[in-house]
Amino acid sequence: MLERVAKIPVAFTVNGDAVQVRTWPMMRLLDVLREELRDTGTKEGCGEGECGACSVLIDGKLVNSCLVPIAQVAGADVRTIEGVFADPRFPAVRDAFVRCNAAQCGICTPGMILATLALLAEHARPTEAQVREALAGNLCRCTGYVRIFEAVREGAAGCCAGASAGGAGHSGGGSAGGSAHPGASHDGAGGSSPAGGSDRTGGAPASGGGAPA
Ligand code: FES
Ligand code: FES
Fold it and tell me: How deeply is 1 buried, as exposed, middle or buried, from its count of CB atoms within 10 A (0-12, 13-18, 19+)?
């Protein structure tokens, strides 16, 4: 006998706003965000949990929304790239990405920014290893990781400078510390993950691999 699955109501918050959708329990959070709520800043790359383009924060934890059934977010707090303006670290991170030319097509950028903010929420002054681990689940096909890592480092420095100066921000002007990055020889090439290891919930495997189609 054919089993039928009914649509269900799911209530949660997106960037602080209460929302309720009525949909299939296994509908992907990514699709609900983009198609129903029109939050199209969240991108789809691989659709398989490999690339991190669809990254969002659920209750503060970075996840790949293409792997999250909507039923799992009932009652949760979801933050997308549209909601990053509420994060006091965002201006410094944004400025650093611009200054370091850390984006080209921009498909990966929302996920990179959210991964960076999640990292800085845990580690105000991340080590190189922590930067690499935090972005291990986010793939970039065109910019390469040298500039992105540089932007994360500069963004962290800008946040710290802003905090110690009472929010005065980070004065710009070129990249601090150059882009030398032993082992990050991925500039311009697609495919592999920037660093080994990602413990992202519902997310990318430890060593990346799949390139967004
Ligand atoms: S689209 Fe979700 S991880 Fe690639
Ligand atoms: S800027 Fe194009 S995929 Fe990263």
Answer: exposed
Which residues does the chain have with pLDDT short of 70? 1-3, 162-213
Task: For 8-83, give the CATH class.
Answer: alpha beta
pLDDT score at 167: 40
Q: In the chain, where are the structural domains located? A: 8-83, 87-164
pLDDT value for 3 = 67
Distance 80 CA to ligand 1 centre (A): 14
* CATH number for the domain whose boundaries are 87-164: 1.10.150.120
51 lines ligand 1 (CB under 6 A): yes
CA nearest to 63, candidates 108, 53, 133: 53
Atom 4, ligand 2: which residue's CA is nearest? 140
